[in-house]
Amino acid sequence: MERYNFKEAEVKWQTVWEERRCFAASEDADRPKYYVLEMFPYPSGRIHMGHVRNYTLGDLVARYKRARGFNVLHPMGWDAFGLPAENAAKENKVHPAAWTHDNIDTMRQQLKSMGLSYDWAREVTTCDPEYYRHEQKMFLDFLEHGLAYRKESWVNWDPVEKTVLANEQVIDGRGWRSGAPVEKRQLAQWFLRITAFADDLLETLESLERWPGRVRLMQEKWIGRSQGLRMFFALKGRGDRLEVYTTRADTIFGATFCAIAANHPLALELAEGDADLAAFVAECNRLGTSEAAIKTAGKEGYDTGLRALHPFARGRELPVFVANFVLMEYGAGAIFGCPAHDQRDLEFARRYGLDVVPVVLPPDADAASYAIGDEAYLDDGSVINSDFLNGLSVEEAKAEVAHRLNAAGAGKPAVIYRLRDWGVSRQRYWGCPIPVVHCADCGIVPVPEADLPVRLPGDADLEAPGNPLENHPTWAQVDCPGCGKPARRETDTFDTFFESSWYFARFCSPRADTAFLRDSVDYWLPVDQYIGGIEHAVLHLLYSRFFTRALKQCGYLGIKEPFAGLLTQGMICHETYRDADGGKWLYPEDVIGAQDGSLVHATTGAPVTVGRSEKMSKSRNNVVDPQAIIDAYGADTARLFMLSDSPPDRDLDWTDAGIDGAWRYVNRLWRMVAEPKAALVAVGSPMPGDLSPAAGTAHRAIHKTIANVSADLDKFHFNKAVARVRELTNLLEDLDGAEDGWVLREGLETVARLIGPMMPHLAEEMWQRLGHETLLAETSWPEADESLLEEDTVTVAVQVNGKLRGTVRLPKDSDRESATSAALDLDNVVKAVGGRPVRKVIVVPNRIINVVV
RNA sequence: GCGGGCGUGGCGGAAAUGGUAGACGCGCGGGACUCAAAAUCCCGUUCCUUCACUGGAGUGUGAGUUCGAGUCUCACCGCCCGCACCA
Known about the structure:
Elements: H1 6-19, E1 33-38, H2 49-67, E2 71-73, E3 77-78, H3 83-92, H4 96-112, E4 124-125, H5 129-144, E5 148-158, E6 163-165, E7 170-171, E8 174-175, E9 183-192, H6 198-203, H7 213-223, E10 225-235, E11 241-246, E12 257-260, H8 265-271, H9 275-285, H10 291-296, E13 301-309, E14 317-323, E15 334-337, H11 343-352, E16 360-361, E17 382-383, H12 394-407, E18 411-417, E19 422-423, E20 425-426, E21 436-439, E22 443-446, H13 468-471, E23 477-479, E24 486-489, E25 493-494, H14 497-500, H15 503-506, H16 518-524, E26 529-533, H17 539-553, E27 566-569, E28 572-579, E29 585-586, E30 591-593, E31 599-601, E32 608-615, H18 626-633, H19 635-643, E33 652-654, H20 656-674, H21 693-714, H22 718-733, H23 741-755, H24 760-769, E34 793-800, E35 803-811, H25 816-825, H26 827-833, E36 840-844, E37 848-852
Parallel strand pairs: 1-2, 1-26, 3-4, 12-14, 26-27, 28-33, 34-37
Antiparallel strand pairs: 5-6, 5-9, 7-8, 9-19, 10-11, 10-13, 10-18, 12-15, 13-14, 16-17, 20-25, 21-22, 21-24, 23-24, 28-29, 28-32, 30-31, 34-35, 36-37
Helix pairs in contact: 1-24, 2-19, 3-4, 8-9, 18-19, 19-20, 20-24, 21-22, 21-23, 22-23, 23-24
This protein binds one RNA strand through helix 7, helix 10, strand 19, strand 20 and strand 32.
């Protein structure tokens, strides 16, 4: 028996598609456009399974929409700046540019072997000056429009490497390479004013109907709009006041302390005269800048000795603590603590023996005996122990406090956001240079547009400690564009989220001399379907939404939302294996099945402990290299596996058995066409006047499958679409009579067309073997014959008291009475009713009949 | 710590709007073909009970709403993702 030669077929069709430029996109006002985009990869070396999944999903959408008549734009590029290139430079003494370009060459070749329908002529690489010069121009425009500014902010500083560390490079408060305790340092850095759009970014979320609800919710929480009160506490023995922010002004009478952040100006001032406080502040700073690290640390505080005066309760003094859980970046960097109604404050109060005074009484509680235990009370109630607020609701009390403080000049209502401005400065080499010059006389001077791009030097020393651009002997030396005197270039580069915040627009006119052509972005944008990992739910997606607004404000384009539709895919997981004794992680290829069915090490024969399926990662040794799969089974098999079984937004378990199953199906399909069971009629033969009963059933099933698969693809239920095609395949295999030749051809052609977006090489091969001279890639999607979709009888379930007792076949849309009598006639129903009086019969037409006795 | 999500057979997963739980696949069991194996094909496969019919239980756990709950409500348990310098 002949086998499907995928190696030959896949290369053959890839070549044909490329030669015929099947996937080249150009603007065409007469056809509806559809822009499909997958998140472009960081060129880390080789593609991984996550890429295979992401790009399989995108390619399916692109090919499907193309078949449906859309003018499809489907581009690919490289998010090529980033930290790993610098790490590789340090570890392997290879230049980041060379390393990156090698990786891109490898990965491009790998992606091409998957048969993805990209318009490769639009490929962009973000580390190319032809790309990044445009974002330097954008930055200058942002500066001009007040969207970029400079301020001091905190970074993780490694004193040994003399470098700023990313949060992921800080492990237990130490630098990952040096092991030295990390210090927090303040540096002047560039920021983009994303908070200027906070309200708009929040409100427009609602209109993003084709985004997953959870992503919208996460962004909403991230922006974190809150309506509260800025209030000012007089400080005993000092002239200045302490500003705090609160959303719970109603609990002011329950306040028993104030707390300020470790790097609050007041804390720093007091620390100068208090060595213990200085030590405590230093201790807080060792936690680094990550919010998770700060918030998970045990609640610690230091009593500064200062006393804040309660604004209403005369003579009541609140101790002022420095506390490690108060963030300088949020609100005023200071709070008042009301332990009874805030869990963090409660834990802090218990630890330091502070009073816990309940001021909101739950609806069903008794005022005299009510006390707080281990849990703060957060809900509504009536206010108690609060002088003039007593008896009010929480909302009424908030309003009253705001009113009184405002009148007294001790507070004013304020809307604040959790969202902070986007810090874009990075003290790194492998990023886009920030195009400004620092001049002793003129201050900060933008690099003139004519001098762009500011290019990275090729000869930076990447191994010496510190920032390579800062260390470079000549690169930063430049004459001030303003006064002409010697000055210094900015030596920071952009955050790499900068590049990914506008690449979708660059793809519209990737070779344009400007960032993009207005006509092109007007035609192609917004992206109709964006596909990528859920891990980007907030940062990348929010930055891109902001960037688009900023570009609009600067006149680059006319839209504010870059992505109309979003699909977030799940991760790829795989079983994990460990040594039974040592607990060492083992590679899947070193694990084999023993004769008794247990798993053992392939070379040593030692028993292996099987762990649960976890996200593929190098540290757990549970990665499977997609190249090995593509080499052994072909791209179509790998693609099919990615689409079957798991819905795209859920995690996918990689299993060897699953890939074998996909492989079997690929071969089965091929055999059905290579060795058809019945003689097929010629291409384009008209439908015979009458079909055999089996053929008639198959004919209806074919059209139902077309309708169902189309609906499933529209809803991204790819796993269900695969299941439906398999069902049709099973049915077609039962056709073998000579009179079925016409329907068999209809079925096989339909299958080929339906799997076209999933397994494009196999589909082309089938199409050709079925006698077509056209390309399936250029063939339209099949249409279902509506008249074949409706059944005239339906199976209706019959329940007695909610328990299934049988089914009846009924004409579609039978009336209540005939349905009821048919149901009551069933033997099983008679038995279950057992002569009891029927109280009620519920009839849901064409679905269910429930007899209640 | 905060924010978001997920939980259905041995396994991955199906079940618009509350209406026949388990489509499709994997695995497993039995059979056919074969000297044998591979490949392929056929039958079966939620669990308990039964030769079978039948009956009972069942969607992480516990309550609730309903004629009817995988789906809605509340509480709990477990796992996963993000937290602003990884991308």
